[in-house]
Design a protein that fits this description.
Elements lengths: L1 H17 L16 E2 L6 E5 L8 E7 L4 E9 L4 E7 L5 E9 L5 E8 L4 E7 L7 E8 L9 E3 L6 E5 L9 E7 L5 E7 L4 E7 L5 E9 L8 E6 L7 E7 L3 E8 L9 E3 L6 E5 L9 E7 L4 E8 L4 E7 L5 E9 L8 E7 L5 E7 L3 E8 L8
Parallel strand pairs: 1-3, 10-12, 19-21
Antiparallel strand pairs: 2-9, 3-8, 4-7, 4-9, 5-6, 5-8, 11-18, 12-17, 13-16, 13-18, 14-15, 14-17, 20-27, 21-26, 22-25, 22-27, 23-24, 23-26
Length: 376
């Protein structure tokens, strides 16, 4: 008898602890034999009308955590549905009426769930003659069931492709990355898609940032835009949702303000190195990076113009913190062969970086400890 009681108590504890599966189906108005839905999985459903009533199907959900939950419906042969969300007391706490769309269209309703609680979903035809099949599923994060999350690698471009629902797609794409620094830069290079909205989420799927209308009117293939987020936790997983536009694009992230796969050219003291900035509209990056090791406390950076006669220069330390800039190096009236310069007090033996942008074309660049430019 004691063993029987132990087994009975243990079974009840396991049921409550791991599934939350305690509900009273003898309660007045109880929902009998609801279909259990599995987190992040689609379930095929169907309804057919009664003689004088619309078809109805009930589902049950067990919330695993306190979060915004979404119930998704993907239309198949059914064309019209109403969705009602009920709590464990069978009280309506949410709804989405007139799910109306062609095969493949996806709709959702959402509610704030409490951990360990039972919720019911009522799917009902919104006309007495509504019948047909559909797919239904739920998540406790803002992506539809069975979403594929594409993993990004730092400093590498990854191809993206958003297909519209009208063409059998989802109209969005999800990416994920692990933060390597507390500030991360996110880049998108356009292809057939030239307009996107980006939403950034933390490891608990809380939205922590967005970039609306990235690209847009006038943007063309190969152009690049960027955004960044600071105060991230190193080693934590973050998520990016891209939507609004459709077509191909490239996406990547870095731990410093250079595009993925950027080539950083090393400079040698008092030796001229050629630079060549190509515009994004012609397939370039619209910028160029250089690096050097300081040989003295004071270093002069020289630019000798060629087909490019105006530049902005940004100088970064070894931790990629910006420590200086020179805007409009060269500029109006400057000609090929003329030399401009700027200087900074640095730490000898440390590595530094230079970003040159704003204009396009060829130029020459070097550095040294003296205020006089080296001979050509």
């Amino acid at each position: 008898m004691k063993n029987f009681l132990k087994i009975a108590v243990l079974s009840l504890v396991l049921c409550v602890t791991f599934t939350g599966c305690v509900w009273d189906d003898k309660k007045e108005g109880a929902i009998h034999n609801p279909i259990s839905l599995t987190m992040d999985k689609w379930e095929k459903g169907s309804i057919s009308p009664g003689k004088e009533t619309a078809g109805v199907k009930y589902y049950i959900i067990f919330a695993r955590r306190a979060a915004t939950h979404r119930i998704y419906v993907k239309m198949d042969t059914v064309k019209n549905l109403d969705i009602y969300i009920l709590n464990s007391a069978y009280e309506q706490i949410g709804s989405r009426n007139d799910f109306d769309g062609d095969t493949g269209r996806v709709f959702y309703a959402e509610w704030e769930a409490e951990p360990g609680k039972v919720y019911y979903i009522k799917a009902e035809g919104n006309y007495t003659n509504t019948s047909g099949s559909f797919w239904i599923g739920y998540t406790d994060f803002p992506a539809r069931p069975e979403t594929v999350f594409t993993e990004l690698t730092q400093n590498k471009w990854t191809n993206g492709n958003i297909v519209s629902p009208n063409n059998g797609g989802t109209g969005e794409q999800w990416f994920t990355f692990v933060a390597t620094e507390d500030t991360q830069y996110i880049y998108v290079k356009f292809s057939t898609c030239t307009d996107l909205d980006l939403y950034i989420y933390d490891s608990n799927y809380n939205q922590i940032g967005d970039r609306i209308d990235a690209g847009g009117y006038g943007w063309v293939a190969s152009q690049i835009f960027s955004t960044y987020r600071s105060s991230l936790e190193i080693g934590k997983t973050y998520y990016i949702k891209a939507d609004y536009g459709t077509g191909n694009f490239w996406i990547g992230f870095t731990d410093f303000p250079a595009t993925p796969e950027a080539v950083i050219s090393p400079l040698t003291e008092n030796e001229w190195a050629q630079g060549n900035i190509k515009s994004q509209s012609s397939g370039g990056l619209g910028e160029q990076w250089f690096t050097f090791v300081a040989t003295d406390e004071t270093q002069y950076i020289f630019v000798k113009f060629s087909s490019c006669t105006e530049l902005d220069l940004y100088i970064y330390d070894s931790d990629l913190n910006q420590i200086g800039s020179r805007f409009d190096a060269g500029g109006y009236g400057w000609e090929a062969g003329q030399i401009d310069k700027t200087s900074r007090t640095l730490v000898s033996g440390q590595t530094y970086y230079i970003l040159a942008n704003y204009n396009t074309g060829t130029f020459w660049i070097t550095f040294g400890p003296d205020s006089v430019a080296p001979a050509p």
